[in-house]
Sequence to fold (464 residues):
Amino acid sequence: MSEVKRLEALIDSGDLAGARRLCLDGLGKDPLDPALNEALVRIIKGTGDHDALRAQIGRVMETSRKVPKRTYSALGSFAFYALPPPGNAELSSVLYMRAHREYPDVPWYYLIIGDIHLYSGKKDEALAEYRLALEEVDPSLLTRDSTSVHRYLLKRIANIYYEKSDFAAAAGAFEEFRRMKAYSFYVTDCNRYVDSLAALGRYDDAVEVLMENLEKMPNKGPLRAKFVEFMERYSDRVSGEFELPPRTLPERKGLPERIPVETGIVTEADDMVEVVREKTSGIARPGDLVALAESVTAITEGRAISVETIEPSFVATRLAAMVQKRSQMAPLGSPHGMQVAIDEVGRGRVLLGLVGGLYDAVTRGKGHFYSLAGMQTALVDDMSGGMPPYDHHVIKGPRDPDATALRVKQQTGLDCCIVDANDQQIAWVIGASEGVDRKHIEQVLSDNPAGNEDQKTPIILIRP
Fold:
Protein backbone atom coordinates (compact mmCIF):
# COMPACT_ATOMS: atom_id res chain seq x y z
CA MET A 1 0.00 0.00 0.00
CA SER A 2 1.36 3.43 -0.95
CA GLU A 3 2.02 6.06 1.70
CA VAL A 4 -0.91 8.15 0.47
CA LYS A 5 -3.26 5.14 0.55
CA ARG A 6 -2.12 4.31 4.09
CA LEU A 7 -2.71 7.93 5.05
CA GLU A 8 -6.21 7.97 3.59
CA ALA A 9 -7.03 4.69 5.36
CA LEU A 10 -5.96 6.16 8.70
CA ILE A 11 -8.08 9.28 8.15
CA ASP A 12 -11.11 7.22 7.10
CA SER A 13 -10.74 5.03 10.21
CA GLY A 14 -10.68 8.10 12.46
CA ASP A 15 -7.06 7.68 13.56
CA LEU A 16 -6.21 11.34 13.03
CA ALA A 17 -3.23 11.24 15.40
CA GLY A 18 -1.62 8.44 13.41
CA ALA A 19 -2.52 10.14 10.15
CA ARG A 20 -0.99 13.41 11.36
CA ARG A 21 2.32 11.72 12.24
CA LEU A 22 2.52 9.97 8.87
CA CYS A 23 1.50 13.11 6.96
CA LEU A 24 3.97 15.41 8.70
CA ASP A 25 6.74 12.86 8.16
CA GLY A 26 5.98 12.89 4.44
CA LEU A 27 5.75 16.68 4.28
CA GLY A 28 9.12 16.87 6.02
CA LYS A 29 10.56 15.16 2.95
CA ASP A 30 8.51 17.12 0.41
CA PRO A 31 6.40 20.01 1.77
CA LEU A 32 4.89 20.67 -1.67
CA ASP A 33 3.49 17.19 -2.36
CA PRO A 34 -0.14 17.74 -3.51
CA ALA A 35 -1.60 14.51 -2.12
CA LEU A 36 0.01 15.05 1.27
CA ASN A 37 -1.24 18.64 1.45
CA GLU A 38 -4.74 17.47 0.55
CA ALA A 39 -4.53 14.86 3.31
CA LEU A 40 -3.25 17.46 5.77
CA VAL A 41 -6.31 19.60 5.11
CA ARG A 42 -8.58 16.62 5.89
CA ILE A 43 -6.68 16.01 9.13
CA ILE A 44 -6.83 19.67 10.16
CA LYS A 45 -10.56 19.75 9.48
CA GLY A 46 -10.95 16.87 11.93
CA THR A 47 -8.62 18.25 14.60
CA GLY A 48 -9.26 21.98 14.24
CA ASP A 49 -5.50 22.61 14.38
CA HIS A 50 -5.47 25.87 12.44
CA ASP A 51 -1.94 26.64 13.61
CA ALA A 52 -0.75 23.62 11.63
CA LEU A 53 -2.49 25.03 8.56
CA ARG A 54 -0.83 28.41 8.97
CA ALA A 55 2.55 26.75 9.52
CA GLN A 56 2.22 24.66 6.36
CA ILE A 57 1.21 27.70 4.31
CA GLY A 58 4.28 29.46 5.69
CA ARG A 59 6.52 26.60 4.53
CA VAL A 60 5.00 26.73 1.07
CA MET A 61 5.45 30.49 0.83
CA GLU A 62 9.11 30.24 1.86
CA THR A 63 10.08 27.76 -0.84
CA SER A 64 11.83 28.89 -3.99
CA ARG A 65 10.47 25.90 -5.92
CA LYS A 66 7.45 26.04 -8.19
CA VAL A 67 4.43 24.91 -6.20
CA PRO A 68 1.96 22.42 -7.76
CA LYS A 69 -1.46 23.89 -8.52
CA ARG A 70 -3.16 21.19 -6.45
CA THR A 71 -1.16 22.27 -3.39
CA TYR A 72 -2.19 25.89 -3.86
CA SER A 73 -5.82 24.82 -4.23
CA ALA A 74 -5.85 22.53 -1.19
CA LEU A 75 -4.31 25.07 1.18
CA GLY A 76 -5.73 28.28 -0.29
CA SER A 77 -9.35 27.19 -0.49
CA PHE A 78 -9.47 25.55 2.93
CA ALA A 79 -7.69 28.49 4.56
CA PHE A 80 -10.32 30.89 3.22
CA TYR A 81 -13.29 28.87 4.43
CA ALA A 82 -11.86 27.47 7.68
CA LEU A 83 -9.89 30.32 9.23
CA PRO A 84 -11.60 33.27 10.94
CA PRO A 85 -11.77 36.61 9.07
CA PRO A 86 -10.05 38.80 8.11
CA GLY A 87 -6.94 36.62 8.29
CA ASN A 88 -8.54 33.95 6.15
CA ALA A 89 -8.88 36.23 3.11
CA GLU A 90 -5.42 37.74 3.57
CA LEU A 91 -3.67 34.36 3.79
CA SER A 92 -5.66 32.81 0.97
CA SER A 93 -5.13 35.85 -1.29
CA VAL A 94 -1.36 35.79 -0.73
CA LEU A 95 -1.24 32.12 -1.73
CA TYR A 96 -3.33 32.56 -4.85
CA MET A 97 -1.51 35.71 -5.96
CA ARG A 98 1.74 33.75 -5.80
CA ALA A 99 0.05 30.96 -7.77
CA HIS A 100 -0.98 33.50 -10.41
CA ARG A 101 2.58 34.76 -10.70
CA GLU A 102 3.87 31.22 -11.14
CA TYR A 103 1.11 30.27 -13.60
CA PRO A 104 0.34 33.52 -15.47
CA ASP A 105 -1.45 31.66 -18.27
CA VAL A 106 -4.08 30.21 -15.91
CA PRO A 107 -7.07 32.61 -16.12
CA TRP A 108 -8.92 30.92 -13.26
CA TYR A 109 -6.78 32.67 -10.67
CA TYR A 110 -8.47 35.98 -11.57
CA LEU A 111 -11.81 34.35 -10.76
CA ILE A 112 -10.57 32.74 -7.54
CA ILE A 113 -8.97 35.94 -6.22
CA GLY A 114 -12.11 37.87 -7.17
CA ASP A 115 -14.22 35.31 -5.31
CA ILE A 116 -12.11 35.75 -2.18
CA HIS A 117 -12.98 39.46 -2.31
CA LEU A 118 -16.63 38.76 -3.12
CA TYR A 119 -17.22 36.31 -0.29
CA SER A 120 -15.37 38.61 2.09
CA GLY A 121 -17.97 41.29 1.36
CA LYS A 122 -15.67 43.40 -0.85
CA LYS A 123 -17.77 43.67 -3.99
CA ASP A 124 -15.88 46.59 -5.52
CA GLU A 125 -12.54 44.77 -5.24
CA ALA A 126 -14.14 41.62 -6.66
CA LEU A 127 -15.64 43.54 -9.57
CA ALA A 128 -12.27 45.12 -10.35
CA GLU A 129 -10.59 41.69 -10.42
CA TYR A 130 -13.27 40.17 -12.66
CA ARG A 131 -13.13 43.10 -15.09
CA LEU A 132 -9.34 42.93 -15.17
CA ALA A 133 -9.66 39.32 -16.24
CA LEU A 134 -11.91 40.26 -19.16
CA GLU A 135 -9.29 42.79 -20.27
CA GLU A 136 -6.21 40.59 -19.88
CA VAL A 137 -7.32 37.03 -20.65
CA ASP A 138 -6.48 35.81 -24.15
CA PRO A 139 -9.70 36.34 -26.18
CA SER A 140 -9.33 32.84 -27.64
CA LEU A 141 -10.03 31.49 -24.13
CA LEU A 142 -13.28 33.45 -23.84
CA THR A 143 -15.57 30.91 -25.49
CA ARG A 144 -18.93 29.32 -24.80
CA ASP A 145 -17.28 26.15 -23.55
CA SER A 146 -17.87 25.25 -19.89
CA THR A 147 -14.11 25.40 -19.34
CA SER A 148 -14.01 29.04 -20.47
CA VAL A 149 -13.62 31.48 -17.61
CA HIS A 150 -15.76 34.01 -19.50
CA ARG A 151 -19.17 32.69 -18.47
CA TYR A 152 -18.19 32.58 -14.80
CA LEU A 153 -16.85 36.13 -14.88
CA LEU A 154 -19.95 37.51 -16.61
CA LYS A 155 -22.30 35.80 -14.16
CA ARG A 156 -20.56 37.43 -11.23
CA ILE A 157 -20.13 40.83 -12.89
CA ALA A 158 -23.80 41.01 -13.88
CA ASN A 159 -25.03 40.12 -10.41
CA ILE A 160 -22.71 42.59 -8.68
CA TYR A 161 -23.91 45.41 -10.93
CA TYR A 162 -27.51 44.40 -10.24
CA GLU A 163 -26.93 44.46 -6.48
CA LYS A 164 -25.35 47.92 -6.86
CA SER A 165 -28.48 49.06 -8.78
CA ASP A 166 -26.38 49.84 -11.87
CA PHE A 167 -29.04 48.39 -14.13
CA ALA A 168 -27.50 49.52 -17.42
CA ALA A 169 -24.22 47.74 -16.66
CA ALA A 170 -26.10 44.74 -15.25
CA ALA A 171 -28.25 44.42 -18.37
CA GLY A 172 -25.17 44.58 -20.60
CA ALA A 173 -23.37 41.85 -18.68
CA PHE A 174 -26.48 39.68 -18.43
CA GLU A 175 -26.98 40.02 -22.20
CA GLU A 176 -23.44 38.79 -22.88
CA PHE A 177 -23.97 35.95 -20.42
CA ARG A 178 -27.30 35.05 -22.02
CA ARG A 179 -25.76 34.93 -25.50
CA MET A 180 -23.37 32.22 -24.31
CA LYS A 181 -26.39 29.92 -23.78
CA ALA A 182 -24.74 28.70 -20.60
CA TYR A 183 -26.44 26.01 -18.55
CA SER A 184 -25.58 28.14 -15.50
CA PHE A 185 -27.89 30.97 -16.64
CA TYR A 186 -30.22 30.31 -13.72
CA VAL A 187 -33.75 31.50 -13.04
CA THR A 188 -32.27 34.03 -10.60
CA ASP A 189 -30.10 35.42 -13.40
CA CYS A 190 -33.07 35.57 -15.76
CA ASN A 191 -35.27 37.36 -13.22
CA ARG A 192 -32.57 39.88 -12.37
CA TYR A 193 -31.97 40.50 -16.07
CA VAL A 194 -35.70 41.12 -16.52
CA ASP A 195 -35.72 43.53 -13.57
CA SER A 196 -32.73 45.40 -15.02
CA LEU A 197 -34.39 45.76 -18.42
CA ALA A 198 -37.63 46.94 -16.82
CA ALA A 199 -35.74 49.53 -14.78
CA LEU A 200 -34.35 50.86 -18.07
CA GLY A 201 -37.81 50.99 -19.65
CA ARG A 202 -36.97 48.14 -22.05
CA TYR A 203 -40.22 46.27 -21.45
CA ASP A 204 -40.39 44.46 -24.79
CA ASP A 205 -36.85 43.16 -24.33
CA ALA A 206 -37.74 42.05 -20.81
CA VAL A 207 -40.78 40.05 -21.88
CA GLU A 208 -38.75 38.51 -24.72
CA VAL A 209 -36.23 37.22 -22.17
CA LEU A 210 -39.03 35.89 -19.98
CA MET A 211 -40.76 34.06 -22.81
CA GLU A 212 -37.49 32.63 -24.09
CA ASN A 213 -36.70 31.14 -20.69
CA LEU A 214 -40.24 29.97 -20.01
CA GLU A 215 -40.10 28.06 -23.28
CA LYS A 216 -37.02 26.21 -21.99
CA MET A 217 -38.13 25.94 -18.35
CA PRO A 218 -41.95 26.04 -18.24
CA ASN A 219 -42.15 24.24 -14.88
CA LYS A 220 -39.90 26.56 -12.86
CA GLY A 221 -42.09 28.12 -10.17
CA PRO A 222 -40.00 31.29 -9.56
CA LEU A 223 -39.87 31.97 -13.31
CA ARG A 224 -43.62 31.57 -13.66
CA ALA A 225 -44.13 33.86 -10.68
CA LYS A 226 -41.87 36.49 -12.27
CA PHE A 227 -43.99 36.39 -15.47
CA VAL A 228 -47.19 36.94 -13.47
CA GLU A 229 -45.61 39.78 -11.49
CA PHE A 230 -44.17 41.42 -14.61
CA MET A 231 -47.44 41.32 -16.56
CA GLU A 232 -49.41 42.69 -13.61
CA ARG A 233 -47.08 45.69 -13.49
CA TYR A 234 -46.16 46.28 -17.12
CA SER A 235 -48.75 44.63 -19.41
CA ASP A 236 -49.82 48.07 -20.66
CA ARG A 237 -46.23 48.90 -21.65
CA VAL A 238 -45.37 45.88 -23.80
CA SER A 239 -46.18 45.47 -27.46
CA GLY A 240 -48.56 42.58 -27.96
CA GLU A 241 -50.25 40.10 -25.67
CA PHE A 242 -48.52 37.26 -23.87
CA GLU A 243 -49.79 34.29 -21.91
CA LEU A 244 -48.09 32.12 -19.33
CA PRO A 245 -47.13 28.89 -21.11
CA PRO A 246 -48.72 25.73 -19.69
CA ARG A 247 -46.67 23.45 -17.51
CA THR A 248 -45.32 20.41 -19.31
CA LEU A 249 -45.43 18.39 -16.10
CA PRO A 250 -48.53 18.06 -13.94
CA GLU A 251 -48.38 19.34 -10.39
CA ARG A 252 -47.88 16.36 -8.13
CA LYS A 253 -50.45 15.59 -5.46
CA GLY A 254 -50.71 13.15 -2.60
CA LEU A 255 -47.06 13.50 -1.60
CA PRO A 256 -45.72 13.73 1.95
CA GLU A 257 -44.93 17.26 3.08
CA ARG A 258 -41.50 18.29 1.78
CA ILE A 259 -39.79 21.18 3.52
CA PRO A 260 -36.73 22.74 1.82
CA VAL A 261 -34.25 23.99 4.43
CA GLU A 262 -32.06 26.91 3.43
CA THR A 263 -28.44 26.59 4.51
CA GLY A 264 -26.57 29.37 2.77
CA ILE A 265 -23.34 28.37 1.04
CA VAL A 266 -21.91 25.11 2.40
CA THR A 267 -18.14 24.64 1.99
CA GLU A 268 -15.37 22.12 2.54
CA ALA A 269 -14.82 23.60 6.00
CA ASP A 270 -18.31 22.47 7.08
CA ASP A 271 -19.35 19.14 8.55
CA MET A 272 -22.60 17.91 6.99
CA VAL A 273 -23.90 16.45 10.24
CA GLU A 274 -23.41 19.79 11.99
CA VAL A 275 -25.08 21.60 9.09
CA VAL A 276 -28.10 19.31 9.44
CA ARG A 277 -28.19 19.72 13.21
CA GLU A 278 -27.98 23.52 13.07
CA LYS A 279 -30.27 24.20 10.13
CA THR A 280 -33.05 21.79 11.10
CA SER A 281 -33.12 22.89 14.74
CA GLY A 282 -36.62 24.10 15.58
CA ILE A 283 -37.95 22.78 12.26
CA ALA A 284 -37.52 19.00 12.34
CA ARG A 285 -40.00 16.82 14.20
CA PRO A 286 -39.77 13.21 15.40
CA GLY A 287 -40.53 10.94 12.46
CA ASP A 288 -39.15 13.32 9.83
CA LEU A 289 -36.64 12.04 7.30
CA VAL A 290 -33.84 14.31 6.11
CA ALA A 291 -32.69 14.08 2.49
CA LEU A 292 -29.32 15.61 1.61
CA ALA A 293 -28.05 16.69 -1.81
CA GLU A 294 -25.16 14.43 -2.80
CA SER A 295 -23.08 17.20 -4.40
CA VAL A 296 -23.20 19.44 -1.32
CA THR A 297 -22.46 16.47 0.91
CA ALA A 298 -19.43 15.77 -1.28
CA ILE A 299 -18.27 19.39 -1.05
CA THR A 300 -18.12 19.10 2.74
CA GLU A 301 -15.84 16.08 2.26
CA GLY A 302 -13.38 18.06 0.15
CA ARG A 303 -14.48 16.33 -3.05
CA ALA A 304 -14.77 19.50 -5.18
CA ILE A 305 -11.85 19.70 -7.62
CA SER A 306 -10.99 23.18 -8.90
CA VAL A 307 -10.67 23.24 -12.68
CA GLU A 308 -7.18 24.74 -12.86
CA THR A 309 -5.81 21.65 -11.09
CA ILE A 310 -7.26 19.18 -13.62
CA GLU A 311 -5.11 18.32 -16.62
CA PRO A 312 -7.11 16.09 -19.00
CA SER A 313 -5.05 13.33 -20.56
CA PHE A 314 -5.30 12.27 -24.20
CA VAL A 315 -7.37 9.26 -23.11
CA ALA A 316 -9.77 11.45 -21.09
CA THR A 317 -10.20 13.84 -24.00
CA ARG A 318 -10.96 11.04 -26.47
CA LEU A 319 -13.34 9.21 -24.14
CA ALA A 320 -15.17 12.46 -23.32
CA ALA A 321 -15.68 13.14 -27.03
CA MET A 322 -17.30 9.72 -27.42
CA VAL A 323 -19.64 10.37 -24.48
CA GLN A 324 -20.44 13.86 -25.81
CA LYS A 325 -21.73 12.38 -29.06
CA ARG A 326 -24.39 10.48 -27.13
CA SER A 327 -25.38 13.15 -24.61
CA GLN A 328 -24.24 16.77 -24.57
CA MET A 329 -25.30 17.17 -20.93
CA ALA A 330 -23.45 14.08 -19.63
CA PRO A 331 -20.86 15.15 -17.01
CA LEU A 332 -18.32 12.75 -18.47
CA GLY A 333 -18.74 14.45 -21.85
CA SER A 334 -16.30 17.01 -20.48
CA PRO A 335 -12.58 16.10 -20.61
CA HIS A 336 -12.22 17.53 -17.11
CA GLY A 337 -15.10 15.46 -15.76
CA MET A 338 -13.76 12.36 -17.49
CA GLN A 339 -10.27 12.93 -16.07
CA VAL A 340 -11.68 13.20 -12.55
CA ALA A 341 -13.55 9.91 -13.08
CA ILE A 342 -10.35 8.24 -14.31
CA ASP A 343 -8.43 9.56 -11.31
CA GLU A 344 -11.14 8.25 -9.00
CA VAL A 345 -11.71 4.69 -10.28
CA GLY A 346 -8.81 4.06 -12.67
CA ARG A 347 -8.48 4.11 -16.43
CA GLY A 348 -9.19 0.37 -16.76
CA ARG A 349 -12.53 0.65 -15.00
CA VAL A 350 -13.59 3.58 -17.17
CA LEU A 351 -12.55 1.73 -20.34
CA LEU A 352 -14.60 -1.25 -19.18
CA GLY A 353 -17.53 1.08 -18.72
CA LEU A 354 -17.01 2.38 -22.24
CA VAL A 355 -17.44 -1.16 -23.56
CA GLY A 356 -20.74 -1.28 -21.71
CA GLY A 357 -21.70 2.07 -23.22
CA LEU A 358 -20.96 0.80 -26.72
CA TYR A 359 -23.12 -2.25 -26.00
CA ASP A 360 -25.96 0.10 -25.00
CA ALA A 361 -25.48 2.06 -28.22
CA VAL A 362 -25.88 -1.10 -30.31
CA THR A 363 -28.74 -2.65 -28.33
CA ARG A 364 -30.43 0.62 -27.32
CA GLY A 365 -29.88 -0.41 -23.75
CA LYS A 366 -29.16 1.84 -20.80
CA GLY A 367 -26.93 2.00 -17.76
CA HIS A 368 -24.15 -0.46 -18.64
CA PHE A 369 -21.45 2.23 -18.67
CA TYR A 370 -22.03 3.18 -15.06
CA SER A 371 -22.73 -0.35 -13.83
CA LEU A 372 -19.32 -1.44 -15.13
CA ALA A 373 -17.38 1.74 -14.42
CA GLY A 374 -18.81 2.03 -10.90
CA MET A 375 -21.10 4.31 -8.93
CA GLN A 376 -18.47 7.01 -8.44
CA THR A 377 -18.29 7.67 -12.18
CA ALA A 378 -22.06 8.22 -12.21
CA LEU A 379 -21.78 10.74 -9.39
CA VAL A 380 -19.25 13.06 -11.05
CA ASP A 381 -20.83 16.51 -11.53
CA ASP A 382 -19.23 18.65 -14.22
CA MET A 383 -18.53 22.35 -13.79
CA SER A 384 -21.68 23.50 -15.55
CA GLY A 385 -23.83 21.96 -12.82
CA GLY A 386 -22.51 23.91 -9.83
CA MET A 387 -23.29 27.25 -8.22
CA PRO A 388 -20.74 29.86 -7.16
CA PRO A 389 -18.23 29.58 -5.62
CA TYR A 390 -18.08 25.92 -6.72
CA ASP A 391 -19.25 26.44 -10.30
CA HIS A 392 -15.68 26.12 -11.62
CA HIS A 393 -15.19 22.78 -9.87
CA VAL A 394 -15.79 19.19 -10.89
CA ILE A 395 -17.46 17.54 -7.91
CA LYS A 396 -16.97 13.87 -7.13
CA GLY A 397 -19.54 11.83 -5.24
CA PRO A 398 -19.47 11.42 -1.45
CA ARG A 399 -16.89 8.89 -0.23
CA ASP A 400 -19.32 6.66 1.68
CA PRO A 401 -22.89 7.96 1.51
CA ASP A 402 -24.30 5.11 3.62
CA ALA A 403 -21.85 5.93 6.41
CA THR A 404 -22.71 9.64 6.23
CA ALA A 405 -26.43 8.91 6.41
CA LEU A 406 -25.85 6.62 9.40
CA ARG A 407 -23.82 9.32 11.17
CA VAL A 408 -26.64 11.84 10.65
CA LYS A 409 -29.12 9.32 12.09
CA GLN A 410 -26.92 8.58 15.10
CA GLN A 411 -26.21 12.21 15.94
CA THR A 412 -29.56 13.86 15.14
CA GLY A 413 -32.09 11.06 15.52
CA LEU A 414 -33.41 11.74 12.01
CA ASP A 415 -33.58 9.03 9.39
CA CYS A 416 -31.40 10.18 6.53
CA CYS A 417 -30.69 9.57 2.87
CA ILE A 418 -28.25 11.08 0.37
CA VAL A 419 -29.91 11.84 -2.96
CA ASP A 420 -28.67 12.61 -6.46
CA ALA A 421 -31.61 14.40 -8.11
CA ASN A 422 -31.94 16.48 -11.26
CA ASP A 423 -34.50 18.38 -13.29
CA GLN A 424 -35.11 15.39 -15.57
CA GLN A 425 -37.55 13.83 -13.08
CA ILE A 426 -34.92 11.41 -11.79
CA ALA A 427 -33.86 10.94 -8.17
CA TRP A 428 -31.38 8.32 -7.00
CA VAL A 429 -30.86 7.48 -3.34
CA ILE A 430 -27.14 6.69 -3.20
CA GLY A 431 -26.96 6.20 0.57
CA ALA A 432 -29.37 5.84 3.47
CA SER A 433 -29.65 4.94 7.12
CA GLU A 434 -31.13 1.56 7.95
CA GLY A 435 -34.82 1.12 7.26
CA VAL A 436 -35.23 3.92 4.71
CA ASP A 437 -37.43 2.89 1.76
CA ARG A 438 -35.15 4.06 -1.05
CA LYS A 439 -37.59 3.48 -3.89
CA HIS A 440 -40.31 5.44 -2.10
CA ILE A 441 -37.97 8.37 -1.45
CA GLU A 442 -36.89 8.36 -5.10
CA GLN A 443 -40.54 8.74 -6.11
CA VAL A 444 -41.16 11.46 -3.53
CA LEU A 445 -38.13 13.50 -4.67
CA SER A 446 -38.26 12.81 -8.41
CA ASP A 447 -39.34 16.39 -9.14
CA ASN A 448 -36.25 17.66 -7.29
CA PRO A 449 -37.82 20.00 -4.71
CA ALA A 450 -34.34 21.05 -3.55
CA GLY A 451 -33.75 22.64 -6.95
CA ASN A 452 -30.77 22.29 -9.23
CA GLU A 453 -29.62 25.91 -9.34
CA ASP A 454 -28.81 28.44 -6.61
CA GLN A 455 -31.66 27.83 -4.17
CA LYS A 456 -29.21 26.92 -1.35
CA THR A 457 -31.64 24.28 -0.03
CA PRO A 458 -29.57 21.07 -0.06
CA ILE A 459 -31.61 19.73 2.87
CA ILE A 460 -35.19 18.52 2.43
CA LEU A 461 -37.26 17.40 5.40
CA ILE A 462 -39.80 14.76 4.39
CA ARG A 463 -42.70 14.67 6.83
CA PRO A 464 -45.04 11.66 6.66
Remarks:
- Residues 149-237 form a domain with the Serine Threonine Protein Phosphatase 5, Tetratricopeptide repeat fold (CATH 1.25.40.10).
